[in-house]
Amino acid sequence: MISRRDFFKGAGAVAVSATAVSRVGAASLPEAMTIDHAKTLVPPPPPNGRHFNPVVTLNGWSLPWRVNNGVKEFHLVAEPVVRELAPGMTARLWGYNGQSPGPTIEVVEGDRVRIFVTNKLPEVTSVHWHGQRLPNGMDGVTGLTQPAIAPGKTFVYEFVAKRPGTFMYHPHADEMTQIAMGMMGFWVTHPKDPALHAVDRDFVFLLNAYDVEPGSYRPKVNTMLDFNLWTFNSRVFPGIDSMHVRQGDKVRVRVGNLTMTNHPIHMHGHEFEVTGTDGGWIPPTARWPEVTTDIAVGQMRAIEFIATDPGDWAFHCHKSHHTMNAMGHNVPTMIGVDHAGIAEKINKIVPEYMVMGDKGGSMGGMEMPLPENTLPMMTGEGPFGGVEMGGMFTMVKVRKDQKRGDYSNPGWYQHPAGSLAYEWTGAMPEPQRSSSAGGEAMPMAQKPDVEVTVRKPTGHSGH
Ligand SMILES: [Cu+2]
Q: What is the rounded average pLDDT of the residues 293-299?
């Protein structure tokens, strides 16, 4: 049997550190694996128990388990963590096992599961297993179905993972604070039959949001709507890993929303179908094609598509403020105002001041002094310059030569000759303008003396 310390070896993944939680409990508690970085760790095939096809958690990992008399045992530790949101900014959050979100828990339909939850927070907590069929006393609602887990205490949750599907976990204790601080994780119950709902690549992440003042490290937990960092798995662009797939792959992306607002998640270059929710799988006859699907608060959506077209395809929330980072959400509109040279001066007094619009030049390219520990509003370098994005933005990279099971970054897409937008360098025709006094007629598309070739439809012979 593979030892749990070797769990991530062979997947090319970074070693996981193991820490015993308490000297008293060490003999009976499963060791709590922790991670101290935000890399995407691709889980190896399950070392024991029933086979399943593991999911890949964006900038995250899946929690190893031990089998004890046929029961799959996991150990979650609720604790303060340091999360890098993107290179250049870290936040002091609360999470599980070293990171926020916590590790993804993967089990198989019918598994008996025992989860030890140790509270290392300075206040009480609990864990609610969102969407699961379980005994009421395992539902994790403080005061309603269980007493709170006091700091320093460990509680045990145990139930059979009855329904296959996609779930989340989060506290049901001082929720406004604990969710705003990043306490959440993903849960996947795989079907007994691995061929059921099988895909080639299965990515998961949670939508979350933080309000961290530039120059500070701790989220403001009383913010209700005006968050300044909109994140996929507590990461913002350009810190969010892209999803790397092979051309022709059937791809699933499961997204859960634990923010305070809805997020219309949009994918470029492909259509997808919503195939599942946290309530279960959607019958194929009830699905319809989409390129954007709205995910409400507390909801999960599984989307599926065939990655037919090679390229670097944007995948993002369609609310434009959600693809921006911390700086500049409250700046005035300055379109048309010539304020050359003024921005830098104002910036010395008002650090969040930024120039929007035509005279401000490129926001992403603005080299302005930032306070310690924050990120530019728009950022990220692409092969053609600044991407000018932030927040909830990443890419699906589709490649013909990506190997099966290879999740490494193939780099930027090389566009075949003739398939790239280009600058027009020919003559510019005089624009035709219509005046409001000119009557109802539309201006003609072409002057009569311009020679064009028009292919007329052929006659309807045979009708
Ligand atoms: Cu959004």
A: 97
Structural tokens at position 242 = 């892209």
Distance 389 CA to ligand 1 centre (A): 13
Q: Is 427 exposed, middle or buried (0-12, 13-18, 19+ CB in 10 A)?
A: exposed
Identify the pLDDT of residue 25.
Answer: 41
Helix (H) or strand (E) holding 179: helix 175-180
Alpha carbon distance, N-terminus to C-terminus of the chain: 74
Distance 205 CA to ligand 1 centre (A): 14
d(CA 72, CA 116): 11
If you measure from the C-alpha of residue 245 to the centroid of ligand 1, how many angstroms do you get, rounded to a whole number? 24
| d(CA 317, ligand 1 centre) in Å | 5
| 115-160 pLDDT per residue, tens | 999 999 999 999 999 999 999 999 999 999 999 999 999 999 999 9
Which tens digit of pLDDT belongs to each residue from 330-345? 555 556 666 566 666 6
- For residue 260, the CA-to-ligand 1 centroid distance in Å is 10
